[in-house]
Structure formats: structure tokens, C-alpha cells
Amino acid sequence: MRRNRDSKIVATLGPASSSEKQISDLFEAGVDVFRMNSSHGDHAGHRERYDIVRGLEKKYGRSVGILLDLQGPKLRVGDFEGGKVVLKTGQRYRLEADECLGDTKRACLPHPEVFKALEPNTDLLLDDGRLRLRVLEHGEGWAETEVIVGGVLSNHKGLNVPSVILDVSPLTAKDLEDLRFGLDLGVDFIGLSFVQRPEDVAEAKKIIAGRAHVISKLEKPQALERLEEIVDLSDAIMVARGDLGVEVPPEDVPGLQKRMLRACRHKGKPVIVATQMLDSMIHAPTPTRAEASDVATAIYDGADAVMLSAETAVGDFANESVAMMDRIIKRVEGDPLYREMREAERRAPEATAADAISAAARQVADTISAAAIVTFSTTGSTTIRAARERPVVPILGLTPRKDTARRSALIWGVHSVHTEDCHAFREMVSKAIKVAKSEGFAEVGDPIVITAGVPFGTSGATNILRIAWIE
Fold this sequence. Notes:
Elements lengths: L7 E6 L6 H10 L3 E5 L5 H18 L4 E5 L5 E2 L7 E4 L4 E5 L9 E3 L3 H6 L5 E4 L4 E9 L2 E8 L1 E4 L3 E3 L12 H13 L3 E4 L5 H11 L4 E6 L8 H7 L2 E5 H7 L5 H15 L3 E4 L14 H12 L4 E4 L1 H4 L4 H16 L2 H10 L7 H15 L5 E4 L4 H8 L6 E5 L2 H6 L6 E5 L6 H14 L8 E7 L8 E8 L2
Parallel strand pairs: 1-2, 1-17, 2-3, 3-13, 6-7, 13-14, 14-15, 15-16, 16-17, 18-19, 18-21, 19-20
Antiparallel strand pairs: 4-12, 5-11, 6-10, 8-9, 8-12, 9-10, 21-22
Helix pairs in contact: 1-2, 1-11, 5-6, 6-8, 9-11
């Protein structure tokens, strides 16, 4: 099940991708990591899909990652008389924390933390930015606003406060319940929504305690003010352009996306670009040319993975969406310009033995035209370092831990294999040769480059480089 590409595909499961056949078809089309969205569905449904994905590993002999995406502290208005109201541009409109039935003069906003953070002239966005209110005055539990952009406002529509850091935990009561469920189930990644500051990541990681990797979703402009700190604390980053595109002007999103990708590449952290990548394929068998270009741009810019949301969760052409994304990635990675861009942005290795070995492995593999770089790693740190170098040859990541193999499914260029542990250097070389041959990466006479850390099982101790030939 070699993918013959380096960048990975994340696909969201939902009503259009719930059966064993549907999920198997998506995997065969090219999915590397499956996403379960806790904002939709229930635990029983997620458990069924989880079991199906784990069954794919046994069927195909390939490690597959599973991401549980938490809903996060989503702000919403309450109910309205008749289910909706029409707000006219220029009118006054009052928001109240107290429970009430909304009408043309007021609405319930059951989030006291919002009112505490408001300032005069703060803009509030409703229904994904379709309506805009401006705060005129406010007090404890209320705000008087002017409607800047009017429209229809209906029950439970979302609210965004772009310019304000809200004093809320990144984990709601629902999130904590979903988190416990996901960790008990054994998911590989937890998607942390609406991250505003590094403390949000630290809070989640303390609870998760290493049982899954944390993917921080950057969809609040406030997060960009402390971007490097958030990247440092996170195991991976998701450029979540949905809410980000609501809270900042659309013309700012491309530049912010590039900034986030560059920060992750410099730190050697995996990064996913998400939201509306092939949106028209929800109901059409082919994407727009602009969408194809959007996916390609993310790959050119160095994304580890690109993600499909509604396209595979509820779309009419789920398999076609994955296959299209797969073809776009392969076409980009076959472009000489892509390799030139990766070479141009490579940074000098850090002054550590582990980084020096990883950089040397890439150089040696290129010089001798190696069939692959084979990494041995218990935690995955050696494999991540190898991927950070963006070598020309594929990376075969061997690990004795299933969780590490599954988490490596998200890393650029890595074909992860769960294998028995090694206890001696000679055994490691023998196993690297055997797996490189059996997995279709090398043939008799081909050289491979092997990196590992000795003593085995020591995290971060990448200190060996060895050239071997397939026998």
C-alpha cells in the first residue's frame, strides 16, 4: 500500500462515509488519516467507524491515523420567536446573557465571558460573518449594538469576536466528555479547536498526558500573536481556514496560511491545511480550477497534509474527492519547481547530534541515490527529524510501538511500519534490509541509509548513520 507521494491526505468521516465499504474505498483512494468530528454524530457512531478503520490496518498491513476533532467553545445565540428574525442595517440591537426568546430588538447570548471582554466599537460577527454588529455600550451581561450588516438571524447561529481574547477554557464540558471517550477508544490525535494562546495547548496536554498527539487548530487571529509558542507546544498544527476566514478579511487568509506553514516547517512540526479545499466536489465530480490550485499551493508551500471535510463526510463524490487530491499532490511533487522550493527553504540543522545525523542522512541518500532512508524510532522523534530534512528519497519509519506507527501516518514522506523491537545493531540493519525489500522500497543491490538512536528505546538519541545494501 505505498502511496508514491510524500504529502498526506486527511479525510473526515460522516454519513457519506460510515460503512465498512465506504471507508475502505476511501482508504484505497488515498486517505492516510481519518478524522472524526465530535461536532456531529454520537459516540456510538464514532466507535463503529473507529473499529472499521482499525480493521483496515489488519486487512492492508498499513498503519492508519485517527483524529478526533473537538468542538471547542463555540459561541452561539439562543432561540428566536418563530425560529428567526430579520435585522436591518443601521438599527439598534441588544444582546443579553439572561435567558430570553429573541425578537427584532434583542437576542439571548448565553456567554457571560463575551460581555466581560467587550470594548466600545468591538465588532461581533454572526452566522459565519454574514451579519455584523458593532458594540456601542455594554455592561455586565448585556451589550447595546448597531447593526452594520443586516440579514436573517436564526436559532443557535454562531458568533465570532475577532479582535478579543476571551477568558474561556479551550475545553468545554462536552469537549472533556468527548476527550475521555476518544482517549479510552485509542485515537491517535486530538484536534484542539479555537486555540487562542499557548496556555490553551498546555491545559489540553496536561489532561491528555501523552495518550494522543495534540493538533492545535489555528482559527483565531489572536493565536497568531504567539504563533511560535503555540507551535512549540503542539505536536502538529491545523490551518483551519473556516473560522479564520470569518474573523479576518478573506484577502488576509493566504498570507496568514503561508506564515503558519513557514513557522511549522522551521520548527519541524507537521502542519495540515484544511477547509473548503475541494468544496464544489460535495455535489460535483470535478473541482473548480481555483480549488485545484488551492490544494497545489498548500503542497508547494510545504504542507505535510491537506484535509477534506464535507467533501468526504456528506459529499456525493467522496471517493472522487480523495482521488482528485491524490492526483494533484502527485502532480505537484513531480514538478521540478517543487523540489527547488523545498531545497531553497531548508534551514541549517540545529547544533545537536540528532539533527546532524538527520541532515547527513539526507545528503548521503542523495549522493549515493539510495532507495530509502530507514529510521528506527520508539517515539517517532528520529522519523520526524528525517522528514524535516525533506529528502528526495522516501522515509521508511520502523517502530516497535503501534501508537508511534499510527501517528507517523501524518508525517510528510513517511511510510510507517510497526515491527518488533531491536536489541542489537546487527539485528537493526538486518531488519531494515528485510522491511525495505518486503515493503517494495528497494531491490537486491540497492543501497539504503539507516538512522537510529543507541541505546535503543532512548527518546531523541539519534546518533547512528549506516549505509547498507539489499541482499
